[in-house]
């Protein structure tokens, strides 16, 4: 559970930092186009798009933890 929360909060924080950077930076430096293909429902500068991106980022953390932690445990046990 620790890895799920860690990765989810990390990805959510990264998402929020990128959104903030996109609001402050010139157009050629914005990162929202990199997030869009990975976050269904994400649209730049809409409330629903922002919320969809935040939820998607958070859920990706649990998805990664759900795959990576069992794989790590499997290979760690195998190499003992």
Structural features, described:
The chain crosses the membrane at residues 7-29, 49-72. Keywords: Membrane, Transmembrane, Transmembrane helix. By secondary structure, the protein is mainly α. It is built from 3 helices and no strands. It has helices spanning 2-24, 32-35, 47-78. The longest helix has 32 residues, at 47-78. The chain is elongated and about 50 Å long.
Keywords:
80 residues; 0% strand; elongated; membrane; transmembrane
The amount of beta strand, in percent, is under 5%
Q: What is the β-strand count? A: 0
Low-confidence stretches: none
C-alpha termini separation: 23 Å
Mean residue pLDDT: 92
Class inferred from helices and paired strands: mainly alpha
Please give the largest β-sheet.
none
What radius of gyration results from the CA coordinates? 16 Å
Question: Which bin fits the share of residues in helices?
Answer: over 70%
Query: How would the global form be characterised?
Result: elongated
Q: How many distinct helices? A: 3
Q: What pattern of helices and strands is seen along the backbone? A: HHH
Oligomer: single chain
Transmembrane segments: 7-29, 49-72
Keywords: Membrane, Transmembrane, Transmembrane helix
Q: Could you write a compact summary of the structure shown?
A:
This protein is mainly alpha-helical. It has three helices and no strands.
């Amino acid at each position: 559970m620790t890895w799920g929360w860690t990765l989810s909060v990390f990805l959510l924080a990264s998402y929020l930092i990128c959104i903030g950077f996109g609001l402050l930076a010139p157009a050629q430096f914005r990162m929202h186009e990199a997030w869009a293909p990975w976050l269904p429902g994400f649209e730049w500068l809409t409330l629903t798009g922002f919320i969809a991106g935040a939820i998607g980022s958070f859920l990706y953390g649990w998805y990664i933890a759900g795959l990576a932690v069992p794989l790590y445990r499997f290979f760690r046990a195998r190499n003992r």
